[in-house]
Write a structure and sequence with these properties.
The structure is a single chain. The protein is mainly alpha-helical. It has one domain: Double Clp-N motif. It has helices at about 5-25, 30-40, 40-50, 55-65, 70-80, 85-95, 100-105, 120-135, 145-155, 160-165, 170-180; strands spanning about 25-30, 120. A two-stranded parallel ribbon has the order 1-2. It is elongated, with a radius of gyration of 19 Å.
Amino acid sequence: MFERFTTEARAAVVAARTHAVRLGHPRVGTEHLLLALAELDPTTAAALAGAGLSPASLEAAIVAHVGRPLETDRAALAALGIDLDRVRDAVDVAFGPGALLDARHSRRNQRGRHAGTGRFSARARKVLELSLREALRLKQRSIDTEHLALAILREGRGLACLILAEHHVPTDELRDRLESAHHPA
């Protein structure tokens, strides 16, 4: 399916993964896809900005819902008198740079898959699948960023849609705007 993605759509998926990793989130969710689109897709960005939702405010909303796991860990350790940065530096000296991070990401979950950031949530995978359906519905051969945004709206139950609802983003108007990007009047 990814062979049908435009360069821009692929960049958005990569950016979503980068956001999830940067924020320390265990999975790439619909919220990370929306954040990437808010930064990279002019149509989505303009529609969100019209509703008062910038990439910075979108990221703040994501963090408000999901948190920053590493910062929570840092605060808990600090309460015990442990400086996470000093521990990380000591582990890097003893075992090589990035050893602590590598160990964290190489653990396996109950299903035998690697735990950690970078994997897509079930809803985000559904959005990627629905983006193909959106492209086909609009009679497009390739999947573009607007199809990803339309797929987020079509999936309708992810954190991205919850944040849109909380910020009173008119999703019908957003959908119309995204569709007209491929079918100008």
